[in-house]
């Protein structure tokens, strides 16, 4: 294997050195070293800067609709929620370090584990992927912005306010306390205060953000790809984001319906889940897990797309079996909707239904296996470069395989019934979700950090980060498999001595502190990079996708000249980048007047028309603010104020719809 040390400066010589060390590309085929590039950008750059640059200061911050600024905000905000949820987990592990501990009260413990799960699933994992999607999907498909920039800003503001709303409950010590799944009727009977109202309203609030954001990503993918980017030339990461978005559109309605019914049960005395009044408590589980199990893949599929971006770049070859990787991604999204009863094998359903869902649980492991073999084959046939991003990708493969093996074990109904609600389950889903999502996300941060910030990170610091987090994770969660088999139930506040659980809990708590130190170290590496890191070149890794053809960080307009894509690896084919030079005098590719970008056909990326795009506006923030007021007034049971807030929100939406940009004439 060849070890890569990142360039010390942002010069073309450093890029050529990296290319030589990795033995991948001829420098003359890359846009950043083409002698004509300066002329290509100088021709249109000044005009585009004047049209696309946004106002500085606070006003520019609250009115921006630029997808890159919004993407960064998603990453920072979701990362902050991750930190808070991680602190919750560290407090819980400290409480469980030994038997008969009483560091915190049972009530606080219930709120901590509920908020930990809820924030990690709903407010970190999916939004963090959305941050990557917002920033990189337009860059990867060769366009200048999202299809609906104002809707994109609205999605972020609602996400931010809904997260603040949820953590307000924790600050008031009335946070949700019935688990992230909130099973009825227990959650209604034993949590009569505002706790579960924060849960149901907060998730309904967040669902607005997730739904409009997902629809925006799908339409951007379908209608705004660069000319020549047919569906068989779309990067695997984009397929992961788009599949996730389609899944969100179909998976969120059952969860929304369940939360609406829960809120009506609690506030208006309805009896959807009260069996004594003709309701059905199991209905909640069906609705919740009809979202909950697809959500595992909603989280994991974009992370797999990140791995499919990292491995080809640092293996110095195109990804193996690309069509099968894409088909596996889409198939996983489809099959995941037939696996939800996998979480209900101990509920008491019929044997016939258990058999069907057991088979579906086994089947869904096949697409994941296809992608595993593709990644391993790419590395086997390539020349692996040991960067921090690549180490995280390799850590993901090891960890996710372990989680996948235990997942197949859960498909065996008798085994599942034995370990249900034990620490074996806790170990499994952390291997799947932490190993399958957090490790690739960290790899994606190290991989795309130069593009996000314009700065390089420390190679040695990144390697230490990967080692600390991998070791800390394994020490924390692997012993939980043994604990579960020894009978330790999940969601317990404390436990007596003499059960054989104390030693494992102590080891896990030590591992949790190692893991926490690993995250602190990673934060230090990124902070050091921002403060004093070397300036990043446009393409420090010799990447193969279009985001590396832009500046580091990219200009507000992304591409001075919209390229024509000729292959799956546009930066390696020697033709796509040259097209940006060849079209520098073509008004249809530069579009220097107003905010404009191309609209193309769904299948093969043929140019259909030039579209005008909206500029910065305060409308999304106002809509999100009035929606937040509505939710808060509903929580406080002030219906008149809630109705007024809805009316004001409607007025802003009417203003929004009145002030729409015109669509230009079809392109010749």
Task: Quickly list its features.
65% helix; Cytochrome C Oxidase, Chain A; 2% strand; 668 residues; mainly alpha; disordered N terminus; 3-stranded antiparallel sheet
Annotate the secondary structure layout.
Elements lengths: L11 H11 L14 H16 L4 H7 L3 H29 L10 H36 L7 H23 L14 H5 L4 H29 L12 H33 L12 H35 L6 H14 L15 H13 L1 H17 L6 H23 L2 H7 L3 H31 L5 H27 L16 H31 L43 H7 L4 H4 L5 E5 L6 E6 L6 H17 L3 H20 L4 E4 L2
Antiparallel strand pairs: 1-2, 2-3
Helix pairs in contact: 4-5, 4-6, 4-18, 5-6, 5-8, 5-10, 5-16, 6-8, 6-21, 8-9, 8-21, 9-10, 9-11, 10-13, 10-14, 10-16, 11-13, 14-16, 14-17, 16-17, 17-18, 21-22
The CATH topology of the largest domain: Cytochrome C Oxidase, Chain A
Oligomer: single chain
Order of helices and strands: HHHHHHHHHHHHHHHHHHHHEEHHE
User: Strand pairing plus helix content: what structural class?
Assistant: mainly alpha
Spatial separation of the terminal alpha carbons: 50 Å
Helical residue percent band: 55-70%
What is the CATH level 1 assignment of the largest domain? Answer: Mainly Alpha
SS elements, strand count: 3
- CATH architecture of the largest domain, by name, is Up-down Bundle
Strand content: under 5%
The biggest sheet, with number of strands, parallel, antiparallel or mixed sense and barrel status, is: 3 strands, antiparallel
Number of domains: 3
Overall mean confidence score, pLDDT: 89
- In the CATH hierarchy, what is the superfamily of the largest domain? Cytochrome c oxidase-like, subunit I domain
Uncertain runs are 1-33
Radius of gyration: 25 Å
């Amino acid at each position: 294997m060849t070890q890569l040390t990142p360039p010390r400066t942002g010069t073309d010589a450093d890029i050529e050195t990296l290319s030589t060390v990795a033995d991948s590309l001829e420098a003359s085929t890359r846009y950043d070293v083409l002698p004509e590039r300066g002329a290509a950008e100088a021709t249109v750059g000044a005009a585009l800067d004047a049209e696309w640059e946004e106002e500085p200061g606070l006003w520019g911050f609250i009115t921006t609709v630029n997808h890159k600024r919004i993407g960064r905000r998603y990453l920072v905000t979701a990362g902050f929620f991750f930190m808070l949820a991680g602190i919750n987990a560290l407090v819980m592990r400290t409480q469980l370090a030994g038997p008969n501990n009483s560091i915190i009260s049972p009530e606080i413990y219930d709120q901590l584990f509920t908020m930990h799960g809820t924030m990690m699933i709903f407010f970190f994992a999916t939004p963090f992927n959305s941050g990557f999607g917002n920033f990189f999907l337009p860059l990867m498909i060769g366009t200048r912005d999202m299809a609906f920039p104002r809707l994109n800003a609205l999605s972020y503001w609602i996400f931010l306010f809904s997260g603040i709303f949820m953590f307000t409950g924790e600050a008031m010590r009335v946070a949700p306390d019935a688990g992230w799944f909130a099973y009825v009727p227990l959650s209604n009977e034993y949590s009569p205060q505002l706790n579960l109202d924060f849960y149901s309203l907060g998730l309904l609030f967040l669902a607005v953000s997730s739904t409009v954001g997902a629809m925006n990503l799908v339409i951007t993918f379908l209608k705004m790809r660069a000319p020549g980017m047919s569906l068989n030339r779309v990067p695997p990461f984009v397929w992961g984001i788009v599949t996730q978005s389609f899944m969100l559109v179909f998976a969120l309605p059952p969860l929304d319906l369940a939360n609406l019914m829960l809120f009506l049960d609690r506030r208006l005395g309805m009896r959807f889940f009260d069996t004594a009044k003709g309701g059905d408590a199991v209905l909640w589980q069906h609705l919740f897990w009809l979202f909950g199990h697809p959500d595992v893949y909603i989280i994991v599929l974009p992370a797999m797309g990140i791995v499919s971006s990292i491995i080809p770049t640092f293996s110095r070859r195109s990804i193996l079996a690309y069509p099968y990787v894409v088909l596996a991604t889409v198939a996983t999204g489809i099959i995941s909707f037939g696996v939800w009863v996998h979480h209900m094998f101990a509920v008491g359903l019929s044997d016939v239904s258990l058999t069907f869902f057991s088979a579906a649980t086994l089947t869904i492991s096949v697409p994941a296996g296809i992608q595993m073999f593709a990644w391993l084959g790419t590395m086997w046939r390539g020349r692996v470069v040991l960067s921090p991003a690549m180490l995280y990708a390799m850590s993901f493969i090891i960890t996710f395989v372990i989680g996948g093996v235990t997942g197949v074990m859960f498909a065996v109904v008798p085994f599942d019934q034995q370990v249900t609600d034990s620490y074996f389950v806790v170990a499994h889903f952390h291997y799947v979700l932490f190993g399958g999502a957090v490790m690739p996300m960290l790899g994606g941060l190290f991989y795309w950090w130069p593009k996000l910030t314009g700065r390089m990170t420390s190679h040695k610091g990144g390697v230490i980060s990967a080692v600390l987090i991998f070791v800390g994770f394994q020490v924390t969660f692997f012993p939980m498999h043994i604990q579960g088999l020894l009978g330790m139930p999940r969601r317990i506040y404390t436990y007596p001595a003499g059960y054989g659980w104390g030693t494992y809990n102590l080891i896990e708590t030590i591992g949790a502190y190692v893991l926490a130190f690993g995250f602190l170290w990673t934060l230090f590496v990124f902070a050091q990079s921002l403060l004093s890191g070397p300036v990043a070149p446009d393409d420090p890794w010799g990447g193969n996708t279009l985001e590396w053809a832009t500046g580091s960080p990219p200009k507000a307009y992304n591409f001075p000249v919209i390229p024509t894509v000729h292959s799956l690896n546009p930066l390696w084919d020697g033709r796509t980048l040259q097209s940006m030079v060849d079209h520098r005098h073509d008004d249809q590719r530069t579009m220097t007047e107003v905010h404009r970008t191309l609209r193309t056909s769904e299948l093969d990326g043929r140019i259909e028309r030039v579209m005008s795009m909206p500029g910065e506006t305060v409308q999304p923030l106002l809509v999100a603010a009035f929606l937040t007021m509505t939710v808060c007034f509903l929580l406080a049971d002030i219906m008149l104020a809630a109705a007024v807030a809805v009316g004001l929100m409607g007025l802003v939406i009417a203003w929004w719809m009145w002030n729409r940009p015109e669509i230009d004439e079809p392109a010749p």
